[in-house]
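Look at one record.

>
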Amino acid sequence: MYFGGIDIAKRQHEVCVLNAAGEQVLAMPVPNDSAGADRLLRTLRSRLGPDPQVVTFCMEATGHYWMALYGYLTHKGYSVHVVNPIQSDAARDLYIRKSKTDRKDAFILADLLRMNRTEATEIATEPILKLQTLSRTRFAFVDHVSALKQRVLGILDRIFPEYPGCFSDVFIKTSRELLKNYSTPEELAEADLSELTEFLVKHSRGRIGADRAAEIQRYAQGTFGISLAVDAFALELRLLLDQIEFIEEQIGALEEAINIVLEELAQQNHDRDLPEGAHHVIETIPGIGPVLAAAIIGEIGDISRFSNARKLVAYAGLDATVRESGQFTGTRNRISKRGSPHLRRAIWLAAVSARRFNPQLRAYYDSKRAQGKHPLVATGAVARRLLHIIHAVWTKGSPFNADYCWTLPGGDD
C-alpha cells in the first residue's frame, strides 16, 4: 500500500508517495494542467502498477486550485482525502526540523495519510456546489454594495452633511433619485420648490411632499459642507449610485438562481412534509429564510458528515477556545474562528434574526444578557444553539417544532 501527498499550488503541484514503512518512492512536480495530470498518471502506473487502489492521496483544500486535480484522480479511480490546511499545519509541528517547502509539505501530507490521521472526502454534489457558489458570490456582492454605500456617505459628509437627516435611509428609492438628479446642495438650494415637491411626490408615490421638500431645501441653503471641488464629488456620487443599483440588480439575479436550485433540492426531497413555500427542512426554523438556508446548505453539504452537533459547531468555528496550563484555567475564552468563515457568517446572521423572531432563542439571548454577557457573546451562544437545532432538524428530516424543548447536552458555553 502506498500513500501520496500533494502540495497544491496555482501553477505547479508537488507530489510525494511513501510506502507503508514511510520511505519515499516517488517525488515529482506536476503542472496544474491536463498534460501534467496525464504525466502523473503515467508515472504512477509505471512505478506503482496499473491498479489505482494501491495508492491513496491526500491534499490540502487550498483555495479552489485542488478541485481540478481531485476530480481528475477520482475519475481515474484513485482515492483522495482532502484536509483543512489547519490540520496539516498542526502536523508540521510533529517534525523536529522546522522547514517549509512545497516538497516537504507533500511529504507531510503523505505521512499524515500513512498515520491514518485523515478522513476520506467526497466532493459536493452539483446542486450543493451551485448553492455554495451562488451564495458566496451574493455575499461578496452585498459586501461590495456596503462598501460603495460607505463611500456615498463619505461624500455627503463633505459636501452636504445635513442630508442624511432628511430621510430614514439615504438609500431608499426616493433619496437615490433625488441625489442622482440634484447631486449638490447648490442644485437643491436653487431648485424651484414646487418642482422639487412634485419630484418627491412622484418618486415616493405620495408619501413625501411639500414639507419635506422645504426642509431639504432649507438644509441645502444653509449647509455646512465644503464648496471646493463639489462638481467632482457630485460626479463620483452619481457614478457610485449607478454602481449600487447595478450590483443590486445582480444580487436579485443571484437570488433568483438560488431559488431555482432550492426548488431542485425540494423536488429531490419530495417525501418530506414541508410547509408550503419551504424548500428545505431548515427553512422551518425561525430566522432562516431561503437566502440563509441556501448559504448554510451550500457550506454544510451532507449533514451526515457530522455525527453530532458539536462537530458542526466546530466546523463553523463557533466553538469556544480552551486555555489551560498546569493549574491555570482561562476564563475569557473566545470562539475559535477556525472553521468555515462562510458558514459562520450565515449562522451568525441567522442567529441575529432568530433572537428576534424565535421566542425560545430570544428568551435564551435575554438570559445571557441578564448574566452580564456582552451582546456579541450572547449572540454567539444563540448561534451555537441554533446549530444544534439545525443539526437535529436536518438529521431527522422533521420540520421545526416550536413546542419542543431544545436542550443541549452538557451545556453550550
About this structure: The radius of gyration is 28 Å. Confidence is low (pLDDT under 50) at residues 322-331. Strands lie at 2-7, 12-18, 24-31, 55-60, 79-83, 324-325, 328-329. The longest strand covers residues 24-31.
